[in-house]
Amino acid sequence: MLTISSSFNVIDSHTAGHPTRVILSGVPKLVGKTVLEQREDFRNRFDHLRPALLHEPRGHAAMVGLVQVPSSVADYGVFFISSYVYLDMCGHGSIGFAKTLAFTGALTPESGDHFTIETPAGVVTVGVSWAADGSLDKVRITNVPSYIGLEDFAFDVDGVGEVRTDIVYGGMWYALVDARPLGIPLVPENASRLMQLGSHIKSTLKEKIADIAIFQGSPAPSVLFFDADAPDSATHFLVLESNKFDRSPCGTGTSARMTHLLARGVLTPDQTYHARNIFGIPFEARLAGRTEVDGRAAAMVEIEGSAFITSTQTIFFEKGDPLSKGFLSR
Q1: Catalyzes what (predicted)?
Q2: Domain presence at residue 110
Q3: Is-contact 51 86, C-beta < 8 A?
Q4: What is each CA distance from 55 to 63, 89, 146, in whole angstroms?
């Protein structure tokens, strides 16, 4: 007879290929008035649950989790956990959360065409559209403000040479790097090479910008390789770690990229930006408004995409399991 020490009910989905695991039950009650405070309470007291629920043998390096918590300022409160870091905002995860709400019946065509989510980065508005059969079709996330932190920054990378980047905030910090001068096409068969290169660039960049105040206290910018085939269209490949890349075009990264294109005058405010992943699945981005953050011009970008349910399950932790803490094999 099995002896189960703990269990968690979850629903898994993917948004353009990248997973979101919504944890429905099993997380202890958290302390805090805001989502950020509750996230920090989870980090301080229950961080062991993050690798247990996301790493092998119950997940994998690219798994992203979402914990729903109370919010006093929005319809829902959520925070995002991943295999390495806590994410302040996650576009693909927010789209996956909307799909999960529809799957469970918490969100229906009668619920209206939008709702709000409090995240650690701020409150985002989620718009939804429904198919003729009553299923959720498209999800639109009006993201937190995106703004440029550092423009046209050149630095040397061992074995690569000079790399130029613009570092832009879209809910997390992203180093935008044109892939074409590097000579590695953004295609699935190059994923391993791109992860290694992106991780190398990321670690070098982290040292180069360590003394710049705006980046202090935040995770190092992730490297977003892009390959533009037109001013309003590009393939994205976001490197998170040496063994982890975003399968989706990256919602918050797409916000950052569009903000940069608008600032450069490459895109006009009425244009739609089409960001594809290496499998050809797109996100669409549009300018929803303008604002300022600490005196910096900022853009409110709307990201549109779709998510698909992949499983519902109960994750068990059997007493005596030597791998209950989770592990990463690469």
Answers
A1: trans-4-hydroxy-L-proline = cis-4-hydroxy-D-proline
A2: yes
A3: no
A4: 7, 20, 30
Query: Which pLDDT score, from 0 to 100, does residue 1 have?
Result: 58
Task: Specify the pLDDT at position 71.
Answer: 98
Q: Is residue 327 part of a domain?
A: no
- Give the CATH number, domain containing residue 75: 3.10.310.10
Q: From the candidates 16, 90, 139, 300, which is the catalytic residue? A: 90
Residue 90 annotated to the active site = yes
pLDDT, residue 144, reads 97
Q: Are 158 and 257 members of one domain?
A: yes
- Rg over alpha carbons for the chain, rounded to the nearest Å, is 19
The distance from CA 226 to its chain's CA centroid, rounded to whole angstroms, is 16
User: Residue 323 falls within a domain, yes or no?
Assistant: no
Total count of domains within the chain: 2
Q: Which of 23, 30, 63, 250 is catalytic?
A: 250
Q: Is 52 left (phi over 0), alpha (psi -120 to 50) or beta?
A: alpha
The per-residue pLDDT for 236 is: 99
Q: Terminus-to-terminus CA distance in the chain, angstroms?
A: 33
**Pair 253, 211 in one domain:** yes
**pTM (two decimals):** 0.96
Active site residue 250: yes
Co-location of 131 and 158 in the same domain: no
| 9 occurs within a structural domain | yes
Q: pLDDT tens across 165-200, in order? A: 999 999 999 999 999 999 999 999 999 999 999 999
Q: What is the largest CA-CA distance in the chain?
A: 66
Beta partners for residue 19, in sequence order = 14
Domain that holds residue 268: 147-305
CB 221 within 8 A of CB 175: yes
Residues 87 and 70 in one domain: yes
Hey, CA dihedral for 66, 240, 306, 287, is it positive or negative?
Answer: positive
**What is the rounded distance in angstroms from the CA atom of residue 80 to the CA atom of residue 106?**
20
pLDDT below 50 — which residues of the chain? none
59 touches 21 (CB < 8 A): yes
254: enclosing H helix or E strand: helix 251-264
**The pLDDT value given to residue 242:** 86
